[in-house]
Design goal:
alpha/beta, TIM Barrel, Oligo-1,6-glucosidase, domain 2, 7-stranded antiparallel sheet, globular, binds 6-O-alpha-D-glucopyranosyl-D-fructose, O16G_dom_2, glycosidase, GH
């Protein structure tokens, strides 16, 4: 080994050793290796209905998305995942699919989809589709055939005779199971004279994964869209994929009442043990991974990826990654930055807890990811406070692994209050005007804000399918692009930094809560500038001594990116021993000269 290489190796080892001596939390392995595209991806969720309308009907569509792919490229996005675009009666806005092999007519045609893929390829953008395996629409041919007990379809869904009440003699559902969207998870079908299971709406019957024909059919769905050129799938609603096996008499067990709520229609009324998080679900994901890997082996190209949607405890979620011998999903979504703050206040300590909970439970050698929002949750700017949206966008972009942004979070879009009359989300519609706000997911699904012109530039037509936000005159792409600094510009700067910085790609990570309510993340890579993120989540001024966090930091750091309200200047240097941070101020800095 030449002496220069020896010195390099020693410096790297020394650097890693120094990191390990630090206070606070850190993830090591700063060694530079090559990473596959998804390991450092900047992912972006498109909700097609609300992204861009191209034909004036007030509903977003595929041609609308195609016309805006360049926008995603400018943000730095690596791959966009599209919420469902398949044929659907739209009871759950595309999550109730009636034909898994075709496009919803109001969104366009298969040819429009092919044009979208072609344009994306030209721009070097990857497209990921939503795969909804748990259920179909009740208007699907499969369901109709199953209702008719047509050969091969008899057991496509979970059918049951139900019970007869010993006292009244009346027919009852087989169990007390509740759907997510309020009310019983069983629906009586007159024609077939049996109940069917639906963990979501009545119009979303659960497919029966104990039937090998269903397993094979859903693998066909994956292969069909892979052949159309997609780069992977976001797998919807995994926890309820399997239910426990019935006993020898064919009976299922009741769930225990949890006591968490008196509302007997609300799923939280039950402690769900038999209808979620079964081991067979993990195995099914491993099988889908094989489908994707086989496809790549046969047809070549970049890795096709599996993203998993699961709100489940870590012991279950982490198994999706795979085990010692088998690969599972590339990225089971990490919702901790959302869910920890649903149960606790938004604070630096709880941000740290959210990060710890993922990194400390993640199996070795796997890739973390950070989801800030999606179409099921309130807007990030509304959850954390508008003054913290830049900080949170910075956080997910400086942490190691993949970042996941829901459309509009880069602009700082906020929740739109939707009246009971305008409410369309089935979850809310299954409740009543007094309580619907605790269930509705409409506020985060309103049309994307492109300009301050008519209907925010979302559509040329007179109406929009959900009301527009009232603040679109200032919160929109056009206005924010023209501003000297804006949430959008900050997001773009972050995207560019992620592309250019070896440290953000390969560096080791250290993070810590400082003082009462400030938070710092540091990324370190030998022979590359160290990147430091610092944010004040509190409501008083904080003076941070960053040397308490890492004594090896220099006297001053160069400012790369600042939050909108910060009065600091790009490229100026700021001292590390007493860094003044205003409430809500967030910075990304570097040790470079
Ligand atoms: O929304 C939730 C929490 O806020 C979840 O309980 C959600 O219902 C669950 O994660 C599944 O969501 C997914 O599947 C649903 C669909 O309505 C959601 O939009 C989708 O993200 C049924 O397909």
């Amino acid at each position: 080994m030449a002496w220069t290489s020896k010195v390099l190796v020693s410096i790297t080892i020394l650097a890693l050793f120094v990191i390990d001596q630090g206070q606070g939390c850190q993830v090591s392995t700063g060694a530079q290796t090559t990473k596959d595209w998804w390991e450092t991806a900047q992912l972006y969720q498109i909700y097609p209905r609300s992204f861009k309308d191209s034909d004036g009907d007030g509903i977003g569509d595929l041609n609308g998305i195609t016309s805006k792919l360049k926008y995603l490229k400018e943000l730095g996005v690596t791959a966009a995942w599209l919420s469902p675009i398949f044929t659907s009666p739209m009871v759950d806005f595309g999550y109730d699919i009636s034909d898994f092999f075709d496009i919803q007519p109001e969104y366009g045609t298969l040819d429009d989809f092919r044009a979208l893929i072609k344009k994306a390829k030209e721009l070097d953008l990857k497209i990921i589709l939503d795969f909804v395996p748990n259920h179909s629409s009740n208007e699907s041919e499969w369901f109709k055939k199953s209702v008719n007990r047509e050969k091969g379809y008899e057991d496509y869904y979970v059918w049951h005779d139900g019970k007869v009440n010993a006292t009244t003699g009346e027919r009852e559902p087989p169990t007390n199971w509740l759907q997510y969207f309020r009310g019983s998870a069983w629906e009586w079908n007159e024609q077939r004279q049996q109940y069917y299971l639906h963990q979501f709406a009545v119009q979303q019957p659960d497919l029966n994964y104990r039937n090998p024909l269903v397993v094979a059919q859903m693998k066909r769905v994956l292969k069909y869209w892979l052949a159309e050129g997609v780069s992977g799938f976001r797998c919807d609603a995994l926890p309820p994929l399997f239910e426990v096996l019935p006993d020898a008499e064919g009976q299922y067990p009741d769930e225990v009442i949890s006591g968490a709520t008196d509302d007997a229609e609300d799923r939280n009324h039950l402690t769900v043990k038999y209808i979620e998080n079964q081991p067979e679900t993990i195995d099914m994901v491993y099988q889908w991974r094989t489908v994707l890997d086989d496809y790549q082996r046969i047809f070549g190209g970049d890795s096709r990826v599996l993203l998993i949607e699961t709100y489940a405890p870590a012991w279950f979620t982490m198994q999706f990654y795979g085990n010692r011998t088998t690969n599972g999903a590339h990225l089971p979504f990490n919702f901790n930055l959302i869910t920890v703050m649903e149960q606790n206040e938004f604070s630096a300590k709880n941000v740290q807890l959210a990060i710890d909970l993922w990194l400390n439970n993640m199996p070795a050698g796997r890739t973390p990811n950070w989801v800030l929002g999606n179409h099921d949750k309130r807007r990030a700017a509304s959850r954390y406070g508008q003054e913290h949206i830049d900080a949170m966008n910075m956080l997910i972009m400086v942490l190691p692994g993949a970042s996941v942004t829901y459309q509009g979070e880069e602009l700082g879009m906020t929740d739109v209050e939707i009246s009971w009359e305008d409410t369309v989300d089935p979850w809310a519609c299954n409740s009543n005007p007094e309580i619907y706000e605790q269930y509705t997911r409409d506020p985060a699904r309103t049309p994307f804000q492109w300009t301050n012109g008519s209907n925010a530039g979302f559509t040329d037509g007179p109406t929009t399918w959900l009301p527009l936000a009232s603040d679109y005159d200032t919160i929109n792409v056009e206005t924010e692009s023209q501003a000297e600094l804006s949430h959008l510009k900050i997001y773009e700067h972050l995207g560019a930094l992620r592309k250019s910085s070896q440290t953000l790609k390969y560096g080791s990570t250290k993070y810590q809560t400082l003082l009462e309510n400030s938070f710092v993340v540091e990324r370190i890579l030998a022979n590359e500038p160290t990147i430091v993120f610092a944010a004040n989540f509190g409501n008083t001024v904080a003076y941070l001594n960053l040397l308490e966090f890492d004594k090896n930091l220099p006297e001053s750091l160069k400012l790369l990116i600042r939050s909108v309200e910060s009065t600091k200047n790009y490229n100026n240097r700021y001292g590390t021993t007493s860094l003044r941070l205003e409430p809500g101020e967030a910075l990304v800095m570097s040790t470079e000269n």
